[in-house]
Each structure stands twice: as structure tokens, then as C-alpha cells.
Design goal:
Elements (H helix, E strand, L loop, with lengths): L2 H6 L18 H94 L11 H14 L5 H23 L1 H23 L4 H12 L23 H4 L11 H53 L1
Helix pairs in contact: 2-5, 2-6, 2-8, 3-4
Length: 305
């Protein structure tokens, strides 16, 4: 008896559990009907599996992006911490330089005043008392005017005074050069102090940078007069120039990113579990469909022989 004839014999499909449910249909017809049901069932379960896979892939990609973002934020935070360490060391050195520069400036100012007072003892000014240079000149004149002293004794005395006068002149000739050089030194010391230690100097700018990195300064970006036009008015300061919040690991952005990543990890695992279950059901449905299709194909091929 051929395979088709065998399958057309409905007795082969009957069993104790069918309770006559097969009716008058033969086995091949039942398999073909079951194949239709199996194909529909597979299409449904495959669509559900694909939808679950898409949800899992989207969640996985989002988790991956958040992981990369958080890694970049943490690296940026680490670099910011290293910058603060270096800046604090540099700022401490600048403080010491400021102390030394201030002391140097004050010391040079006192030295200039003392040197000026020394030269003031040598010169006679219009509104001042007669000083050493003038007094020496007058002393020579007065020695010459003494009448009861021998000329030889006068000459000896005058020669001694003239030696002293020459030394005074040598000192006087140094005044311009010494004072100019000392003033230049004082100017340099004052400029150094100003550039490094004044309110707008290096010390001030370093302190501001440190305060910003430590989160002590939160400046709101302002709007310039150029923003007052029809396109940008009113000016949104935050939109014009958003400012990062420091320290980075204390910012809402860091906290929200980390929180979002924690949620994404949990949801991704949940989506993966859901997709795995639906994939198994889809694979089972495909196996059933393929089994029925192969059975029908084999039966028809055998009958053809």
C-alpha cells in the first residue's frame, strides 16, 4: 500500500485521546491543517520575538552609551582633580612669591629713601639748609681769611680739606647713577608685585580658577548688548553660554547619568530575559512548523515513488 493510501487511512491517526476528534479527516489532511496553524503560530511568536529583540537592542545600546558617557565624565573628573592639585601647589608658590615681592619692594623703597637722605646731606637746595658740600667750600674760604695763621699752616689745612672735598665730589657724582638704578629696581619690584599679587594679578586669577574647580563660584553667564536684537531677545543666558558644574562628580549631570545607567542595566537585563523566553517559544514554533512541513514533503515524495 502506498504512503498516501496509508495516510489516507484515518485509522492511523486515531488514538485513545482523540475521542473521535479527527472526524473523517485522514492523517495528511490533518497534518496540512496543523501546518497552517503552526505557520500562523510561528509568525505570531516570531513577530513577538523580533519586537522583544528590538527592545533589548535599544536598551543595550542606550546602556552602552551611558556607560561610555559615565566613563568620560569620570575621566574628566579625575583630570579636574589633578588640575586642582597642581593649581593648589602653584598657588602656594605664588603666595610665597608675593610675600617676597612685597618685602623686596618695601626694602628697596627704604633703601632708596636712605640713599636719598645721604645725598641730601651733601647738597644744598634752594629751600634747604646748607649741606656738607657748601660747608666745605665755605670752610676753605674761611681758612684763607684767617690772619694770625702762617700761610704754610693755612696751606696744610686747606690741602687736607681739599682731599676731603674731592672725596665728597666723587660721592656726589655717583648720585644720578645710583638713584636711577635703584629706582629701576624698585619699579621692577613694584611691577612684579602688581602683575602677580594685585587684585587683577596672577594670584587673583589662580584663586578664581581654583574656586571655580572647587565649586565655590557659580557664575551666571551674562548677555551682551549685541544680544538685544529681534532674533535673540530676550537673551537666555544659560542657552547662550552653559557653564559646567564643578566639582564634576558632585554635579546633577553626573548623578543623573549614573542613576540612568543603573536603571538601564536593570532594564536591559529584564529585556534580555523577556526576549530569551520569546525567542525560545519562536524557535519551538519554528521546529514544529518545519517538522510538519518535512513530514508532509516526505510522505508525498514517498507516494510519488
Amino acid at each position: 500500500m502506498g504512503m498516501i493510501n496509508f495516510l489516507n487511512n484515518k485509522a492511523c491517526c486515531e488514538d485513545d485521546q482523540s475521542n473521535g476528534g479527527n472526524g473523517d479527516k485522514n492523517c495528511l489532511t490533518q497534518w496540512e491543517e496543523q501546518l497552517t496553524d503552526a505557520s500562523n503560530d510561528y509568525s505570531e511568536k516570531s513577530a513577538e520575538s523580533d519586537k522583544a529583540k528590538e527592545a533589548y537592542d535599544n536598551s543595550y545600546n542606550w546602556r552602552d552609551k551611558l556607560t561610555n558617557w559615565l566613563n568620560l565624565i569620570e575621566k574628566s573628573n579625575e583630570k579636574a582633580d589633578n588640575i586642582v592639585i597642581e593649581l593648589e601647589f602653584f598657588y602656594g608658590q605664588v603666595i610665597e612669591v608675593c610675600k617676597n615681592a612685597e618685602c623686596t619692594s618695601k626694602a628697596l623703597e627704604k633703601l632708596l629713601c636712605q640713599l636719598k637722605s645721604i645725598f641730601d646731606l651733601l647738597y644744598t637746595y634752594e629751600n634747604g639748609e646748607e649741606q656738607l658740600k657748601t660747608l666745605v667750600t665755605k670752610l676753605i674760604k674761611e681758612i684763607n681769611c684767617v690772619k694770625d695763621v702762617k700761610d704754610k699752616d693755612k696751606e696744610i689745612a686747606i690741602n687736607c680739606v681739599k682731599v676731603y672735598e674731592e672725596k665728597i665730589k666723587m660721592v656726589c657724582e655717583l648720585q644720578g647713577d645710583l638713584l636711577c638704578k635703584l629706582i629701576d629696581a624698585l619699579k621692577c619690584a613694584n611691577l612684579l608685585f602688581a602683575y602677580i599679587c594685585d587684585e587683577q594679578g596672577l594670584r587673583f586669577k589662580l584663586k578664581k580658577i581654583l574656586d571655580e574647580f572647587n565649586g565655590d563660584i557659580k557664575e551666571e553667564p551674562g548677555c551682551s548688548s549685541d544680544d538685544d536684537d529681534s532674533e535673540s531677545y530676550p537673551c537666555d543666558a544659560q542657552a547662550k553660554k552653559p557653564q559646567p558644574t564643578m566639582p564634576i562628580d558632585k554635579s546633577d549631570y553626573f548623578k543623573n547619568t549614573k542613576s540612568s545607567l543603573d536603571i538601564a542595566i536593570v532594564k536591559t537585563d529584564k529585556f534580555k530575559e523577556g526576549w530569551t523566553k520569546k525567542k525560545k517559544k519562536s524557535d519551538d514554533a519554528l521546529t514544529r512548523k518545519n517538522s510538519l512541513a518535512e513530514a508532509i514533503k516526505a510522505a508525498k515524495a514517498a507516494e510519488g515513488k
